[in-house]
Amino acid sequence: MTNENDNNARPRNWFGALKWEGMRAKDRANEKRANSYAFAWVGLLVAANFLRQLDIVPELAALGLVLASTIPGALFVKAYLKMLREADEMLRQMQYEALAVGFGAGALCGLTALFLFPPGPIWGFSTLIPMVIGFCVRVILAGRKIAQESSANEESDGAGK
Amino acid sequence: MNNKLRVLRAERKMSQAELADLLDVSRQTVNAVEAGRHDPSLSLAFRFAVIFDQPVEEIFLGIDEARNALQLSDQTTDRGI
Asked: ipTM of the predicted structure?
């Protein structure tokens, strides 16, 4: 048997479910890579916005920072696609469903806001924020459900070591 | 989808984790397939078949259901469907 998988570990709490114990080492590495790019992307965007508001760097430099953030952004998309392609079947299904929920929540709230509010930044936020929240909530709930069912079955099975 | 993975695994005294390692999937995937909550991909179904040295249809349908499926297949072939 290989020791690459963390298959014997069982989730005992919310944090365990979030980590999705039992993930393959390859999936964990792919997820880490995608997360790193995502954090770099968001970090650069936040930093650029912060610098623009403080007005301590030339406008052009702040805009350059915003444009530079597209590099980790594009790398994130590439890493996420690689993660999906190589993912374990259950993990992939979970991600697809979360993407569908995120897209649906974003479209639902965005289109509603489109007819409720006059043109403005709220149009963008009302799409983006529900999209991200919908995706994250779905991943957390699905991960927790799978981990709980899996843990319960393995324990009652008696074959687990 | 019905299957007899749990029985086959028990006969070989394997844990889900060990089987998952052999199949290169997570233990959760093995668990969900065994419990019938997740239909495996074709590739994974064939890997199960190789490990347990049994045809896919016997593992996932049971022999009676497999026979019924084959008869149905013969009937549709006879009718030219």
From this structure: 0.71
Spatial distance between the Cα atoms of A77 and A89, rounded to a whole number of angstroms: 20
Question: Averaged over A102-111, what is the pLDDT?
Answer: 94
Nearest to A134 by CA among A106, A102, A103: A102
Model pTM score? 0.75
Residue B60, class by beta-carbon neighbours within 10 Å (0-12 exposed, 13-18 middle, 19+ buried)?
buried
Residue of B16, B25, B37 with shortest CB distance to A160: B16
Q: What amino acid occupies position B3?
A: N
The chain A residue lying nearest B6, using CA atoms, is A157
- Would A58 be classed as within a structural domain? yes
CB contact under 8 A, B29 and A7: no
The pair of structure tokens assigned to A159 is: 């074959």
* Among candidate residues A87, A109, A127, the one where a domain is terminated: A87
3-state secondary structure of A40: helix
Residues A83 and A146 in one domain: no
Q: Tell me if B27 sits within 8 A of B20, measured CB to CB.
A: yes
